[in-house]
């Protein structure tokens, strides 16, 4: 239940059998932009159609703040969808380190308290590090929404270009 994986996940292992849901999360931050972008892309072991979300927020203090916000939002969305068994994946090694050793990241204590509280809603939870190439869908969602001129949030109704 309390699994946080520090080791790099081999992309090939993502193709193996799994139960519950896989949720890929990413944040996109650029110092000159008005917004940060956050995105998630979720697949189900039962063959349900994928779900996804993208939102832009007032630009965060740093890229790492944006990554934490992306994870927290994805967790909230999974809780709201009543998905209790979720393996989350990120390409941000500092995010994995942060949730593994929260006391070493005092500047993020408010986020980490929220993380701990939300994590208790899951019957199965993990956060694993993957390569950027394995996180393309969440990355694209976060990057595209970051550059929108107005505040936007999409869940499962993301317009096609």
TrEMBL record:
Domain RNase H type-1: 25-144
InterPro entries: RNase_H-like_dom_plant, RNaseH_domain
Pfam families tied to this protein: RVT_3
Gene Ontology molecular function terms on file: nucleic acid binding; RNA-DNA hybrid ribonuclease activity
Protein name: Ribonuclease H domain
UniProt organism field: Arabidopsis thaliana x Arabidopsis arenosa
């Amino acid at each position: 239940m309390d699994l946080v994986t520090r080791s790099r996940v081999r992309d090939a292992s993502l193709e193996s059998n799994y139960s519950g849901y896989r949720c890929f999360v990413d944040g996109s931050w650029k110092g000159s932009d008005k917004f940060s972008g956050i995105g998630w892309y979720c697949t189900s072991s039962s063959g349900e159609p994928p779900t996804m979300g993208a939102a832009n927020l007032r630009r965060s203090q740093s890229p790492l703040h944006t990554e934490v916000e992306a994870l927290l939002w994805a967790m909230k969305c999974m809780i709201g969808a009543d998905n209790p068994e979720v393996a989350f994946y990120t390409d941000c090694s500092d995010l994995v380190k942060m949730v593994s050793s929260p006391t070493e990241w005092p500047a993020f204590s408010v986020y980490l308290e929220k993380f701990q509280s939300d994590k208790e809603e899951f019957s199965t939870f993990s956060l694993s590090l993957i390569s950027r190439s394995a996180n393309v869908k969440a990355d694209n969602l976060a990057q595209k929404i970051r550059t929108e001129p107005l505040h936007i949030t999409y869940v499962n109704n993301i317009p096609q270009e």
